[in-house]
Amino acid sequence: MTNKKENLRLLISLGLAGVMVAAILWLISKVSSTIVTTSSNPTQTSSSFTNKPSLLNLGTRILVKVQTSPEKTDGVKAFAEKDFSTAVKKFTDSLKNNRNDPETLIYLNNAKIARDNLEAIKVAIVAPINFDPSLAEEILRGVAQAQNEVNNQGGINGKKLQIVIASADNREDSARLDNELVQDKSLVAAVGVRRNAEIYKEKGLVLVLPVELPNQAENTEKLDNNTVNLQPNSSTTNYLFHINPLYDNLVDTHSRYIARQARNVAICGDVRSSRDNSTSSSNQILVEKYTQAIKKYGSNVINTPCNLADKNFDPRAFVDKAIETENASGFLLMPSIRNIYFATKVAQEVKGRKPLFASETMYSATTLQNGKDLEGMVLPVYWHRNANKDNPFAKNAFQLWNAQVNQRTAGAYDALQAIIAGLKEDSTREGLQRVLSNPNFSTSGATGMIQFSPSGERQGEAMLVKIERCESCSSGTGYDFALLNKK
């Protein structure tokens, strides 16, 4: 009897031990599986490790919220479900109802490539959608037009051009976006203005800057620091290319004209403190550059402060004081694109009393909507549709978007045109850099012949435009930007 009890205890003990061993082995297998799954994917990006969604998008999300329709919503849903035939149909229907939507046109072209399972070359466009939607759409229109044209013409050496739209949701994600772009080996180039442009040099991804805006929404570093960072460097290979001449060119041309028209100039900036309050905004540096240039050409800048970003700013009090106390004989407005409204309020107070001038940020359709208050205002530009009437870009743009475009759209179009021309010669990252850096490289675009120095700069001269009344003009506002011959 005793032996039976002992045998029973032994069997129970062995059974419990077996269960424990099995449980331990199961846990080990699960942990090992998890480790293997996580580490065996060589294409993972930083987003995978932070459990955050990718900031790069081919057509699965609507980023430009003001351009939303049921058809577009159905299109991105179909794209996400890989039902590309439906996506093509829905995006096509959306464009029929709203031609002036560049995001949808880009998604439509991407969906066609996926539907037909075509070979493609992938380029990214960095758009400040959550920081400055108007600027983002202007840039997207240029990129969408260039993509649409090259794909309709057969692509790049038989491969279609696919556009990835990259957009950070907030400033904290901006650095993550740069890292995603440079680490994504399927991308051969990018178009956009970035705060950390140096990472593109370090990681070997061509970045073409479509605009030269010191107060660009996401470009909040000091302008003079950016200038230093982008100077020629013989010890490194340059991957940064400017589609327009550097901003100093605009400032100099404009300041020379202003000094001839006004002896005492009042400047209205759009000055915000930086995030850490240790440096002034890029717009403040632009104010300083204009101040120096105007003085260089013999005129004065008055001391009456004017900050369009100040919520307590009183346009009437400023204008009256500037004229009555400091004998202001001209007013220079330098708003960010988002604050054109407040610059217009200053212009309403100045109206007819003194000459008006403005920075190139006011070269937009928004400005013309207030043309009656801004008539006669002179501003500098890199591109105007009448500067070269034989160039088909402006006409083609109007037919595509059913609206006039500005120099930011032209710059984005040319940025992608330069990349397309370079990719036709070499479609690798390194090869594209060599092609664009070659002094013999050139291609035509909206802004004329495009050619870069080895340091990535482009030579060129600014133009001046003046807001004038017009009859039956295409702007639909009764006002337009007219080229000035005199500089």
From TrEMBL:
Keywords per UniProt: Signal
Under the heading Pfam families, the entry gives:
Peripla_BP_6
Instruction: Respond yes or no to whether keyword Transferase is given for this record.
Output: no
- Give yes or no: UniProt keyword Signal: yes
Q: Which residues form the Leucine-binding protein domain?
A: 136-459
Stored SUPFAM superfamilies: Periplasmic binding protein-like I
Family membership: Belongs to the leucine-binding protein family.
Protein name per the record: Leucine-binding protein domain-containing protein
